[in-house]
Specification:
The structure is a single chain. The chain is an alpha+beta fold. It contains five helices and five strands. The strands form two sheets. It has a three-stranded mixed beta sheet with strand order 2-4-5, with helices on one face. The protein has a two-stranded antiparallel ribbon with strand order 1-3. A hairpin with a 2-residue loop joins strand 4 and strand 5. Helix 1 runs antiparallel to helix 2 and helix 4 packs across helix 5.
Length: 171
């Protein structure tokens, strides 16, 4: 995880990290509000409800972690960032985020291909998932509907490489 000493860049990254889960929750809530108004509590079940509940629960957990991180800005500025490092398979972490995005419909307008090789890293799983989600968000945001997004994880010597390639306009 890289933190720029440039305060504006740190804020921008933080803002983007917070707006993605908030937007996801808001979208899910907007979808279920009309149904909440027209159905009895006893009729609120099924796949759509479980999907909505899962999205809200996952994103709430994610936002809770982000808010805690924002409260630690002083530690970031002092170069004392607390990471919950563990040995993880980078491809499994990236695959989990891609799976969540697929089930929530965020990839529905794009052709997603995954090329994931098992690569073990010493990292903070939540931060890795956050990085993957940010990369996916940018790819989805700037890739026209019907175009492809390719996600790859591979080893390169002693390093792990996560690459997201899309058919967007680029920088």
């Amino acid at each position: 995880l890289y933190f720029s000493k440039n305060e504006k860049k740190y804020r921008w990254l933080g803002d983007q990290d917070i707006t993605s889960p908030v937007a996801s929750e808001a979208s899910t809530i907007d979808e279920i509000i009309p149904e909440l108004e027209t159905t009895k509590v006893s009729e609120r079940s099924g796949e759509a409800w479980e999907k909505a509940r899962g999205v809200i629960q996952r994103q709430t957990k994610h936002m809770t972690r982000l808010i805690a991180d924002l409260l630690d800005v002083g530690r970031v500025s002092a170069g004392k960032v607390g990471l919950a490092r563990e040995r993880i398979d980078l491809s499994e972490a990236v695959s989990a985020v891609a799976s969540e995005w697929r089930s929530s419909g965020r990839f529905d307008r794009h052709h997603l291909s995954l090329e994931l090789a098992s690569v073990w890293v010493d990292a903070d799983r939540a931060r890795i998932e956050q990085i993957a989600a940010n990369l996916f968000d940018n790819a989805v945001k700037f890739t026209p509907a019907g175009k492809g997004i390719r996600v790859g994880v591979r080893g390169d010597g002693d390093s792990a490489v996560l690459r997201v390639h899309d058919e967007g306009i680029g920088l």
